[in-house]
Amino acid sequence: MRNSHQSLRDTAAVRTFGLTFHSPSRLSWPAPGWDQLIHATQGSLTVDTERGTWIVAAHRGLWMPSGEAHEIHVRGPAAMRSVYFRARAARALPRHCCAVNVTALLHELIVRAVDLGALDRTIPAQRRLAAVLLDEVRALPDVPLQLPLPLDPRAAKAANLLLADPAGGLTPKVARESGASVRTLERLFPAEAGIPLGTWIRRMRLLHALRLLADGESVTVVAAE
After folding, report:
1. What is the pTM of this model?
2. CA neighbours within 13 Å on the CB side: how many for 202?
């Protein structure tokens, strides 16, 4: 006879995971066979994948398809609530990461699902809740909160140096330490990251500012940063 935990795994329409952070943390939470919606309910999360960095500020989310390796970094107090759907259940969403705006209704649905722990499709009320949750996820608009990362070693080194000092910009020192000239980096970024280097730097600064604001910093401090 199967135990109750095995039974729930077999009949779960939605699985959930929630954490509240009080200090800097890093975690990876793979769930093979399940697509994930990561939702920041407080503070901000930084999610790193092989192809880019995503800033998930409060009231936003990140759609993470099954099989996408990722790490979540938290700099300060924050709260995360995640829901998992069986892979490809939300067919309207792409098979790649995308940042999304989480509606007030979806937020409440996610919080309720996390409170329940999992939604069992053999229980009518939970099956209906899972269906509404999935409908809301399918309708989510995506937002440009990704910072694509180049794969070329020289461009990747430059990107990491720029991320370490968002206010510094592309200086001769950054170019020298990356092993490429400024002109070479300007050529590599559109090919590797899909956007011009100047645009990449502006987006990096914008996302850094959003993260600081979400972490409770004042506008004055953010402007200085």
Report:
1. 0.69
2. 6
Euclidean distance between CA atoms 195 and 178, whole angstroms: 19
- The domain 4-143 is classified under which CATH number: 2.60.40.10, 2.60.120.10, 3.40.50.970, 2.60.120.1440? 2.60.120.10
Tokens 């995971």 correspond to: 17
Reading the block at residue 116, the tokens are 């329940």
pLDDT 10s digits, 109-153: 999 999 998 999 899 999 999 999 988 888 877 666 677 788 889
Domain boundaries, the chain: 4-143, 150-224
Enter the tokens of residue 126.
């939970």
Give the distance from CA 141 to its chain's centroid: 15
Spatial CB neighbours of 163, under 8 Å, sequence gap ≥ 6: 53, 204
* Residue count (the chain): 225
Could you say which DSSP state residue 23 is in? S
